Amino acid sequence: MGSFNKLVMILVVAMLVFFEGSKALSFCNMSGDGLDACKPSVTNPNPSPPTELCCKDLSGADLDCLCGYKTSPELLLLGIDPDLAMGLPAKCGLTPPANC
């Protein structure tokens, strides 16, 4: 599969997860509901504090997996601020991976 096709596939999956809130889909061990709950906390111009649902779901997430997306242009396409996203674990009282 070419790199363009991979990019399209990643975008389609990410859009489904973020915009549909599907309970059947997950991303780095976060449920669609958890991703939806966290999105207002990582979106400018006025990010809100993370909700209990966001932090609960984030506590079970694969933080190394999520960290792998910190420089991904897909985040910007989805309206997610990478700096806010990288600071979210600390706001939930979680320790981010050392290499993140």
Automatic annotation (TrEMBL):
One Gene Ontology molecular-function label: fatty acid binding
Domain Bifunctional inhibitor/plant lipid transfer protein/seed storage helical: 8-99
Pfam families per the UniProt record, alphabetical: LTP_2
Cited SUPFAM superfamilies: Bifunctional inhibitor/lipid-transfer protein/seed storage 2S albumin
Source species, domain of life: Eukaryota
Biological processes, Gene Ontology terms: systemic acquired resistance
Keywords: Lipid-binding, Signal, Transport
Signal peptide feature range: 1-24
Reported function: Plant non-specific lipid-transfer proteins transfer phospholipids as well as galactolipids across membranes. May play a role in wax or cutin deposition in the cell walls of expanding epidermal cells and certain secretory tissues.
PANTHER family: LIPID BINDING PROTEIN-RELATED (PTHR33122), LIPID-TRANSFER PROTEIN DIR1-RELATED (PTHR33122:SF60)
Protein name per Swiss-Prot or TrEMBL: Bifunctional inhibitor/plant lipid transfer protein/seed storage helical domain-containing protein
Organism for this UniProt entry: Rubus argutus (Southern blackberry)
Lineage: Eukaryota, Viridiplantae, Streptophyta, Embryophyta, Tracheophyta
